[in-house]
Amino acid sequence: MSTRRHFTACPLDCPDSCSLAVDISDNKITRIAASSLNPTTQGFICTKVSRFAKRVYAKERILYPMKRVGEKGEGKFKRITWEEAVQTICGELRKIKEGWGGEAILPYSYGGSNGLLAQDTVDLAFFAKLGASRLARTLCAAPTTEAALGMYGKMPGTAFEDYEHAKLIVIWGANPKASNIHLVPYLKKAKSKGAYIVVVDPKLNFSRKEIDLHLPVYPGTDLVVALSMIDFWYQRKILNSKFIKRYTKGIEVLLEAAQQFPLAKAARIARIDPRMIEKLAKRYALTKPAVIRIGWGLERNRNGGQAAAAILALPAVMGKFGLVGSGYTLSNSSAYRVDPHALVAAPSWNTRIINMTRLGRVLLEESDPPIRGLFIYNCNPVATVPNQKAIIEGLQRQNLFTVVSEQVMTDTAKFADIVLPAVTFLEQHEIKNGYGTYATQYLSPAIIPIGEAKPNEEMFALLGRTMGWQEPAFRATTGDYLARAVKSMAAFEPPLDLNRLRNEKIAVPDFKGGNPIPFKNVMPWTPDGKINLTPESLGDWPYHFSPQKQTYPLALISPATEKTINSTLAEFNLPALYVLVHPSDAVHRGLEAGGEALVYNDLGVVAATVRISDKIRQGVVAMPKGAWRKSSQNGYTSTALVPDHVSSVGGGACFNDARVEVERA
Ligand code: SF4
Fold first, then answer.
1. Could you identify the atom of ligand 1 that is nearest to the CA of residue 34?
2. CB 181 less than 6 A from any atom of ligand 1
3. Does the pLDDT value for residue 46 go beyond 90?
């Protein structure tokens, strides 16, 4: 038996970007563990990826191209050749374009892989050439990106390693224990050195010993809490006026909005004790260095962009920058300064933009032109996108031609007319930039692809050639795209070189003297170098708070868990859907732990098992993000209860605007 160890990295949708050591015996993966290459993640990885081989060799793995032989959604397919698959796809897409125009085709992709090649390379060239509709990717990070871009130009944030130097850490709308596990050791180190740790979240994901203060804000009200902190400082004249004058602009509008939310009013809206907000405001004002880990939980509502902006304003108005362990961390994806045009030369593409959050509605309602062709890759919308019932109905349309490229038979792939086999990250070449940790990593195949699986760049190049298109984008190889990806990044000194990256496997962007320390070695990447406290992206009513109608008594949140990465791995890691309920809400409804319940609203009904815990605040229930239909007794999951309206800033999905009732089944 031949055994070898292979070094690669994890490209999944997670801030940490671990370096991996994969053991292989007789071309079969036997162990996935951490390698020491990424200095921030060395030593351990999550249990999700350590068990990823289960997906690679799953009986549900899609090994060959297939065409549907049963009803849509039934999951009955027959094997075909790649040749037949691409000829069928190209023939159908051509017919749709001729009959309805290119915009009747919708490419649909999201974060199944965060690699540079997996998305917006050849796929972009393919759909641009078709004149397809364009997709606004809004499931996550759209509102926070708009806010951060407008205010700081997406300046790189505080490195996780520097958290251990902070004296105050605020974890706002994030759960590092589920989806940023390499921050946790730094939190522990900081705590052991006396740091004060605050969590702002309707669900407490830490033990009471691990933190010092918990503000269980009601979903969708983070904005008013942040504004009331600013008002608190303003009324007491303790804003850092020197810093504000020198480094910011647009304070007037922010202060005007903040004055609308004195402590008592904000606390009433957020349904928390006003003393909690006061305690946090005082602590933050008095402590240096102070850092805020801003997560994506706070943006999943109609006020998401405004909330992100108000929280991003906190360090600005108090001048909490310039020291190791101060500032904030949101997404660091901009740190690599990737020029997307260097990756692929796509023809100009100015077709309509469709918000991915509204997929169900778009498929069901007659738009102009109606969607007749849907090409889904890196994504499982039936499990992850709001208004699940509408999506399922839409995918059942007989006059819709659907292609799904996938690794395993997902809830979405079952509705495809043609299914194409996709590689996993253990079977491909890729380049991954961490959006939490600062590292560019080279991935190479640990094993040869299973069955006839192909990487996206190869699949779309083949489709382009089958269309008869001559553009270089469809002739380029994976190696060409790797070289382009490396060249597209401007953050390295000396410039990144593919051979060096291939050999060393990792490179760290240069911030002139170690990790980025905002207002020391990095400044806002805005045109004038200042923090814009009222960016245009906040619209005509910046910092406007819009309450969500309380149509049902409980707010439903669907946060990430330690079981899945979005919906990836939920096929075996999340076998039974549950709803987490506060003890008093449970008593009131006669719910018992382990009993069956129905969670419902006007959009649908979801069957789930009851879990009871005081870690979730009263008036709020939680269901896990990314669950598959088979986990629920009635075949629906939390997204069936989520409305498909979008936030005013960034058009983001509003998962946490779901209002529901729960009753014993
Ligand atoms: S999902 Fe995150 S924690 Fe897990 S291996 Fe990948 S990067 Fe590391």
1. 5
2. yes
3. yes
